[in-house]
Write a structure and sequence with these properties.
- This is Mandelate racemase/muconate lactonizing protein.
- InterPro entries: DgoD-like, Enolase-like_C_sf, Enolase-like_N, Enolase_C-like, Mandelate_racemase_C, Mandelate_racemase_N_dom.
- It comes from Conexibacter woesei (strain DSM 14684 / CCUG 47730 / CIP 108061 / JCM 11494 / NBRC 100937 / ID131577).
- The protein is α/β, with parallel strands linked by helices.
- It contains 14 helices and 16 strands.
- The protein folds into two domains: 134 residues, Enolase-like, domain 1 (2-Layer Sandwich), CATH 3.30.390.10; 225 residues, Enolase-like C-terminal domain (TIM Barrel, Alpha-Beta Barrel), CATH 3.20.20.
- Strand 1 and strand 2 form a beta hairpin.
- Helix 1 packs across helix 3 and helix 6 packs parallel to helix 7.
- The chain is globular.
- The protein starts with 11 loop residues before the first strand and ends with a strand.
Length: 376
């Protein structure tokens, strides 16, 4: 384990936050959920020694920038190590607001870990102990903008991804009429063959256990690797009930706002999704991974590819990291980064050894793109 004491000599002297928005070329729909833009909050912590810590998170329709400010104000003057404890104490100090503030606590925690990692000149996976992996297999996500691109384009995309070497493909489709779902997924299964794992993500779009059974039971014959997020994470009892009536494994967890919810979801989920930008930060994501491992189940990070790859390098329970098939949605967030970028070779991600947690922000570009922001 890397010695973190050098980070304790630093003091946080200023914090900058910015909100950036990118209109999407076409609305993205998953069942009742409709997305017309991608909105992010970007955060930078500045220290007296010039070392900085960066973090990013999607707002997902939440007032993240506003919620983050009182958290940031408490961090100024603290050293990064004690500040991580302070963020956790802030969660306990406002239990009624925990769900609403979880993303703010998460992005602050990610920035603090990034600051510590840069201060001690190590990537996150070394700070977490590291499992020694130099590369991580990737799962490719397809199906975006199917209503605009058409079914044939998605099937062709699956063929290309298989040719690239991906052994696991996931379709983002949301809730659709059961007969259509069975017909289209049958076509996808026939196209990619039985030597490729195929999964399905509903993105919380099924309204009830009865609807989930009506849609999912006909899909059993396709031998999907897993069905993800039929319900929101708080509906873990429905997930458990659905798991008891299906042979297909279920996956859940990406929008958990308190790590205790991981234990509930594991009663029905065979694969646990963890996202450090929503569940409370790095340590809470690690808690979820360890719960999954204790239950003999794998975990799959959600969100930033670099962060997820670092978690995979640190824990054997993380077998894969997902990457989206390249589709020009209009999101230009990558233009605000100075690096590093995820290195994908075939279907394998190289574990980045750059000191830090995630990308490094080019703050001049961030300020130019920001629609609002603040500094403390």
């Amino acid at each position: 384990m890397t010695d973190l004491s050098a980070a304790g000599d630093l003091r946080i002297v200023g914090i900058d936050a910015a909100r950036v928005t990118f209109p999407l070329r076409h609305p993205v729909r998953f069942g009742p959920a409709l997305y017309t833009e991608r909105e992010y909050v970007l955060l930078r912590l500045r220290t007296d020694a010039g070392v900085v810590g960066d973090a990013r998170a999607m707002t997902r329709g939440t007032p993240l920038l506003e919620a983050l400010r009182p958290v940031a104000e408490r961090l100024v003057g603290a050293d990064p190590l004690s500040a991580r404890t302070l963020v956790r104490d802030l969660r306990r100090s406002n239990v009624p607001g925990q769900a609403a503030l979880s993303r703010a606590h998460s992005i602050a925690d990610l920035a603090l870990w990034d600051l510590v990692a840069r201060a001690v000149d190590a990537p996150l996976h070394r700070l977490l102990g590291g499992a020694g992996r130099e590369r991580v297999e990737a799962l490719a996500v397809s199906g975006y903008l199917i209503d605009v691109r058409g079914e044939d384009a998605i099937v062709d995309e699956l063929v290309q991804l298989k040719a690239q070497g991906f052994r696991h493909l996931k379709l983002m489709l949301g809730a659709r009429e059961p007969a259509w779902m069975h017909r289209f997924l049958s076509r996808c299964r026939e196209t990619v063959g039985s030597d490729v794992l195929l999964s399905l993500d509903f993105h919380f779009s099924l309204a009830s256990l009865d609807e989930a059974l009506a849609v999912c039971r006909p899909l059993e014959e396709l031998e999907l690797a897993f069905i993800e997020d039929p319900f929101p994470p708080l509906h873990w009892r429905d997930l458990r009930a659905l798991a008891g009536q299906l042979e297909t494994p279920l996956a859940a967890g990406e929008d958990v706002t308190d790590p205790v919810m991981f234990a509930d979801l594991l009663e029905g989920a065979d694969l646990l999704r963890v996202d450090p930008s929503t569940c409370g930060g790095v340590e809470d994501a690690v808690a979820g991974i360890r719960m999954a491992a204790a239950a003999g189940k794998p975990a799959l990070p959600h969100g930033a590819v670099l962060v997820g790859t670092q978690l995979a390098a640190a824990f054997d329970a993380v077998e894969l990291m997902e990457v989206a098939a390249p589709v020009d949605t209009g999101d230009r967030i990558d233009e605000l980064y100075e690096g590093p970028a995820p290195q994908l070779h075939g279907a394998w991600l190289t574990v980045d050894q750059t000191p830090g947690v995630d990308v490094r922000l080019e703050w001049d570009r961030v300020e130019a793109a920001a629609v609002s922001g603040w500094s403390v």
